[in-house]
Amino acid sequence: MTDDRVIRVLVADDQAAVRAGLVLILSAAPGIEVVGEAADGERAVALARELRPDVVLMDVRMPRLDGVSAAREVSGFADVLVLTTFDLDEYVFGALRAGAAGFLLKDVDADRLVEAVRTVAAGDGVIAPRVTRRLIGAFAARRPDPAARPDPRALAALTPRERQVFACLGQGLTNGQIAERLAMAETTTKTHVSRILAKLGLRSRVQAAILAQEAAADGFSPPIAHSGPSGGE
Questions:
Q1: What confidence category does residue 218 fall into, taking pLDDT thresholds of 50, 70 and 90?
Q2: How far apart, in whole angstroms, are the C-alpha atoms of residue 49 and residue 36?
Q3: Which residue from 143, 157, 169 is spatially nearest to 200, judged by alpha carbons?
Q4: What pairing do the DSSP bridges indicate for beta strands 55-59 and 102-105?
Q5: DSSP 8-state secondary structure symbol assigned to residue 128
Q6: Cα(12)–Cα(45) distance, rounded to whole angstroms?
């Protein structure tokens, strides 16, 4: 995303005071515009369809339609950044499967909130740092649906370079960090990530990170990365 583009955000939270605080913080940030507010999941979906924001900041627990179901409806055309108290219940796991691009704790400070919105709008994923390992570990350990395990045939369809990028996603690296590690342009990294999501039938890079963790646990090993520019394609 270029610096001169305004990031359009929809804020969905059933607590009026929390919602007002989020709107205040985001509205004061340069390059971010809050285009709508919703107090329940149904309204969030309706406004997202109408306004087509870049990012939807979505509470997990809301009346009429919970945040997971709303995220599933919205994630096809907007990036969803979930707000949670983070007790690792079914809402959180469901949001991952629904295609959420990231998770923030409700006690996030203003600077981190703004940074997270910018990061998600740029195509990267965000998970609150202090719970990243716990979330990934718990999600992988549960394996509630055997069909959700990595499909060896789908993984085999990845090119050697895509396998390297896929492994980096599993380590929680951003596009910029992946580009630096694999000595290629960041735009090339974004292309690889998009192709990986398409080949594996995933909706977000967070899903890809979880799958990469599970694949590693199942013995998936990417090719050794080249250290020079020759490995950039």
A1: low
A2: 11
A3: 157
A4: unpaired
A5: -
A6: 9
